[in-house]
């Protein structure tokens, strides 16, 4: 994705404000040159004691030009900044429009802090593309040419000297600054992104760093990163200062040249002496308009680097992806089929799933079990289109998942992930993510069904549910799924943090509510799977066993061994007192 091309297209949509800002900038520059030229001419003219009406006219003209210059400058600022903010809004919308459909794939391969720096800092930096890169050359060239034409009426040699000064300040000085800028090559932006990533990771892992005694080392690393950013910013500022100083030197050098050349021409009788001050003031004023050219390379390089980082965000992703329009029947349970599916994560040589084929009838209840890393969660992610299979095909109701609209699929699925996200707010707000029309009585009944009767709808939930136990998070996530009306249930370890009694109660609730729907549940615990129509055992990305609970136990294969191991580690012969004690400890 070329962000600058998007920016240029957006500029065409704001062409009215852009043209008005260019007009305002040109008029402000011309009025400034004429204002100071008139002032110089007025000073020179007073030496010859002109008639009073001449002084009145020149003085009035100076005042009118001052007001006109101020008004034009105001209009330039108004229209240029309004256009810039509109352009930035369009760019941000375009960027997010491409980013959202690609999550969580991008989140899996980008550090969250670095991605945040791209979303905020890099997008923001492109706002200067118009104000500091595209806009100044237009104003500088137009005002300079008008001034050169004006000066040529009095002396062609002074006009040529102004042309030489324009070439140096508008092209040579920026080229010198650009040459020194290449040494940095986006160092400031890289260091800023690194600092953002390190800060985010430190805040997210603060407790673990504290517990393992690594907080001081992480703090020092963060300070070193901050120092590196400060050093890079200082170097960048020095380069800009050198460019501005060089521009000022050229400005005064050309102005002195106008003075010397003008004096010579006056001595030779080629120019009237009354015009000398006027041309010197015009020279000094016109070069003020070219001051922005000294910093143009820095902003141009920064914009290019920001655009490059934004483009890198989508490397390997489909750029012009057409949103599929296939829809699932809302009133029908959904069948699921995987045909020779192989899947591997980006930049991972080892496949997570290898030629997996399975078929789940509409309305069936299926459990997927296996050791950690066997690919259980990846099956659910493929069904939700969070990833695309590397090979093979995923079918829902006989339609390829690739042809189904993502939002329609998610809307018709009731999902409980291993780590559901909770937003800062109240329990009510976190339950009403889909349908805000549900009343409090229904929400309180739902909390009671998932064994959270003590929770109030107005209770505060911190970001990521930091003030909730793991068991409470899972039950709240289940309650949120139960409030949806989808016909496909995808559950990833929904009861892993619950005690035995609560787990059985919640599983029974889920099976009751989904009795006519299709349910796929990933679990590493085998208790409660007797009610499933089918159990699929995965190991190292392949299916090793398939059957009902009783069939798999009778075979005494992989599932039987897992069950024996679970009984040894956990045991299923709890006494009633132990079960009641476990229920009190939950959540």
From TrEMBL:
Listed transmembrane segments: 20-42, 48-68, 128-150, 156-177, 249-267
SUPFAM superfamilies recorded: ABC transporter transmembrane region, P-loop containing nucleoside triphosphate hydrolases
Domain ABC transmembrane type-1 as annotated: residue spans: 19-288
Localization of this protein: Cell membrane
InterPro entries listed in its UniProt record: AAA+_ATPase, ABC1_TM_dom, ABC1_TM_sf, ABC_CydC/D, ABC_transporter-like_ATP-bd, P-loop_NTPase, Type_1_exporter
UniProt-listed Pfam families: ABC_membrane, ABC_tran
Sorted UniProt keywords: ATP-binding, Membrane, Nucleotide-binding, Transmembrane, Transmembrane helix
Keyword Cytoplasm (UniProt): no
Source superkingdom: Bacteria
Membrane topology: Multi-pass membrane protein
Domain called ABC transporter: residue spans: 336-565
Predominant location category: membrane
PROSITE patterns, alphabetized: ABC_TM1F, ABC_TRANSPORTER_2
NCBIfam families, per database record: CydC
UniProt name for this protein: Thiol reductant ABC exporter subunit CydC
Organism name: Saccharibacillus endophyticus
């Amino acid at each position: 994705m070329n962000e600058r091309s998007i920016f240029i297209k957006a500029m065409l949509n704001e062409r009215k404000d852009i043209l008005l800002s260019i007009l305002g900038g040109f008029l402000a520059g011309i009025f400034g040159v004429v204002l100071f030229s008139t002032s110089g001419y007025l000073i020179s003219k007073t030496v010859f004691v002109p008639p009073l009406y001449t002084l009145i006219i020149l003085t009035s003209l100076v005042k009118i030009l001052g007001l006109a210059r101020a008004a034009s400058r105001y209009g330039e600022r108004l229209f240029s900044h309004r256009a810039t903010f509109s352009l930035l809004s369009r760019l941000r919308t375009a960027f997010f429009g491409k980013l959202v459909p690609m999550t969580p794939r991008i989140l899996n391969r980008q550090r969250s802090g670095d991605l945040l720096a791209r979303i905020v800092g890099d997008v923001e930096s492109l706002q200067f593309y118009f104000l500091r890169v595209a806009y100044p050359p237009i104003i500088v060239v137009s005002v300079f040419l008008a001034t050169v034409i004006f000066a040529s009426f009095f002396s062609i040699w002074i006009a040529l000297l102004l042309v030489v000064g324009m070439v140096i300040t508008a092209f040579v000085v920026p080229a010198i600054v650009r040459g020194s800028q290449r040494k940095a090559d986006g160092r400031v932006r890289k260091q800023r992104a690194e600092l953002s990533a390190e800060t985010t990771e430190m805040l997210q892992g603060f407790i673990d760093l504290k517990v393992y005694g690594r907080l001081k080392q992480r703090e020092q690393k963060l300070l070193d990163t901050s120092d590196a950013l400060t050093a890079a910013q200082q170097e960048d500022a020095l380069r800009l200062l050198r460019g501005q100083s060089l521009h000022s030197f050229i400005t005064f050098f050309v102005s002195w040249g106008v003075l010397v050349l003008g004096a010579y021409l006056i001595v030779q009788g080629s120019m009237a002496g009354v015009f000398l001050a006027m041309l010197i003031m015009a020279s000094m004023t016109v070069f003020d308009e070219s001051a922005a050219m000294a910093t143009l390379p820095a902003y141009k390089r920064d914009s290019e680097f920001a655009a490059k980082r934004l483009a890198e965000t989508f490397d390997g992703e489909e750029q012009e992806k057409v949103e599929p329009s296939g829809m699932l029947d809302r009133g029908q349970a959904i069948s699921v089929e995987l045909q020779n599916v192989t899947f591997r994560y980006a930049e991972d040589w080892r496949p997570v799933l290898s030629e997996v084929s399975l078929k789940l009838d509409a309305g069936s209840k299926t459990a997927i079990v296996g050791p950690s890393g066997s690919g259980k969660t990846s099956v659910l992610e493929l069904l939700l289109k969070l990833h695309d299979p590397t090979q093979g095909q995923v079918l829902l109701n006989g339609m390829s998942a690739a042809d189904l609209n993502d939002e329609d699929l998610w809307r018709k699925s009731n999902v409980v992930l291993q780590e559901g996200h909770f937003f800062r707010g109240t329990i009510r707000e976190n339950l009403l993510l889909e349908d805000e029309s549900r009343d409090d009585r229904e929400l309180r009944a739902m909390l009671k069904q998932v064994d959270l009767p003590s929770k109030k709808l107005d209770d505060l939930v911190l970001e990521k549910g930091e003030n909730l136990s793991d068991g409470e998070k899972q039950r709240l996530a289940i309650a949120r799924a139960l409030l949806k009306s989808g016909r496909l249930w995808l559950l990833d370890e929904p009861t892993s943090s619950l005690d035995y009694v609560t787990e059985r109660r919640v599983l029974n609730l889920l099976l009751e509510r989904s009795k006519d729907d299709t349910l796929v549940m990933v679990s590493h615990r085998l208790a409660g799977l007797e009610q499933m129509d089918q159990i699929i055992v995965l190991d190292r990305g392949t299916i090793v066993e398939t059957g009902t609970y009783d069939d798999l136990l009778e075979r005494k294969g992989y599932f039987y061994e897992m069950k024996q191991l679970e009984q040894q580690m956990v045991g299923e012969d709890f006494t009633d007192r132990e079960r009641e004690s476990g229920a009190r400890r939950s959540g």
